[in-house]
Prior knowledge:
Layout: E1 2-3, E2 11-20, E3 26-34, E4 42-49, H1 58-70, E5 74-79, H2 96-110, E6 115-124, H3 126-137, E7 142-148, E8 161-162, E9 165-166, H4 169-180, H5 187-190, H6 194-203, H7 209-214, H8 220-223, E10 237-243, H9 251-258, E11 263-268, H10 286-298, E12 311-317, E13 330-335, E14 343-351, E15 354-357, E16 361-362, E17 366-368, H11 395-398, E18 402-405, E19 413-417, E20 420-427, E21 433-441, E22 447-456, E23 475-480, E24 484-488, E25 493-499, E26 515-517, E27 520-521, E28 523-529, E29 542-543, E30 549-553, E31 558-563, E32 570-583, E33 589-601, E34 604-620, E35 623-635, E36 639-650, E37 653-665
Amino acid sequence: MQIKHEFPRQVREIEHLMIPLKDGTRLAARIWLPADAEQQPVPAILEYLPYRKLDGTAVRDALTHPYLAGHGYACVRVDIRGNGESDGLMLDEYLQQEQDDALEVIDWISRQPWCDGNLGMMGISWGGFNSLQLAARRPKPLKAIITICSTDDRYADDVHFKGGNLLLENMGWAATMLSFSAAVPDPRLVGDDWQAMWKHRLENMPLLARPWLEHSTRDAYWAHGSICENYEDIEAAVYCIGGWGDAYRNTPVRMMEHLKCPKKALIGPWIHKYPHFAIPDPAIGFLQEALRWWDHWLKDIDTGIMDEPECTFYLQEAQPPSAMTAYRSGDWVQTDGWPASQVVQRRFSLTDKGLQPGEHALTSAAGVCSPLTTGVHGGEYCAIWFGPDFPTDQRRDDALSLCFDSVPLSEPLPLLGNPRVALRGSVDQNCGQVTVRLSDVSPDGRATLISYGTLNLALRHDKAELTPPVPGEEMDFEVELDNIGYRVPAGHRLRVAIATAHFPLLWPSPRLTTLSLVPGQQRLTLPVYQGEAIDNPFLSPESARPIDMEFLRESSPKRTITEDVASGEVCVRVDDDMGTYRFLEHGFWVEQKATEEYRTRPYEPDATQADIHWLYRAGRDDWEVRVESELHLACDEQYFYLSARQQAWLNGDVFNDKSWEYRIPRLAQ
Length: 669
């Protein structure tokens, strides 16, 4: 990435400023803007997050916001109430309070002497979510947004549920937020009240996993903040960006299909990161692309960005399975929108002879009862920490699944869109889950995961309404696989693998389940791209100067799978060790380290457990805090058993100690 030191306008930074709200709460902001903005007002770009401007996003903020400010924008980075140096408490994600506060922030920004009254919002993940949510509230100054790695449907495509099945990432993220929300306010910025402020947060800390488990169907809790409830609420222009290595890859095409506002979409090969420093490469000149967007919508400059095709995708070339890769080869392609005229649907059938093109019938019944340890080679649900998180060779999970293979392909097969599998069969219980994996099998036998989808059979008709399957009764259901751009080479085979478990991605069903496919039509529909590749439409990555920092201890992410041969228990352990680092400008240092352990046994659903531990340490030379957060989830057939504990120390002395314990009925799960 090329580092830029000179910009068209000199940049002034306001390190810390408190924005007042009507209820007396003040939100902490950091602002970068042209030095002469009060004489020549500029549009503003808001990024609104709970992740602490002091340290949590400081590294990426330094790369991004001064760059945009140097090109004539006021970039305002605000901490949501209850986080960083902001007042108040944050009791859950995406609450009405969060949106209401943001509306006041937008109004405040629009009235500042350095702002010309026009605003954009930008963000990845949480900031991408609330950019959409605020656009749906239609504040007058908000003209456009860039939303990255986000979703329009909080139930369908966040870290909580997938296909109506409980994600174990639900627990991982709840524990992460338990730790992140316990971060200490900086005494240098908030003054002598910092201990009382920190104590108030710790004593009132919510355990977010509780409501997430209690709302196991798509009810009003999840409808709130999901802009798919009424896409027409959004009138501001939307640029939706995602990555094939990210969990939110379905959002861009769905929003391109349903949004009525001006819109564009981009999906590259990346994990859950901004595209100018994401992996795998090729990263792109995201900041230059963002400037073209902002200049068009906030400065009324004709940059040509809206004259180009609506959707741009990176069509990945096949490569052997690897837990992480630095570069992904492929081609850029474009479509005129979504659904795309350049994509046609090609039908395959699941038959006794494998996967066959065209319409063919399965002539004899086929069944599968997967051990609950199936799926351990599927990788992380959402790759975010630069660790070994991608799926590895699928053959070991395929051996525990019902598989249908094609013959070697006579020509390359470029896939772009959501594959779908329509099945007819029955289960032997009144519950059950189905996971379908689509893989690329190379001539040497290695199986690379292309895409997958899951379905809770009790929610097969409607994710808001339970319809438990009747044991032995035939039913039709469809599993939609994740959106993907992938070219299967000639000579490779396609494999559809069907399993009744996918651990540790999904919490297992209450009872071990056998799925039986009946004779008749069992279909796979593939979206095949028929257009041409284009030259890379993006400039090379640029950024502002990186922040001055030193690593006192390097990060070391790790993922391990172990098996107890006596009990059959499998444990997937994820070590997200982010190291220890110090910001040289103000001397604040931080250490963060997480250990996640997910356990289950092949035929004992009640043996499934999740145990997550987070360590957070921070301070300066004359003071230090430490917080240890633990979360545990277990189950039996009727209940989830959720417990947690958080202990905090100040200079070695106990500062706060809080515990939670809940028994939550298993309704849809």
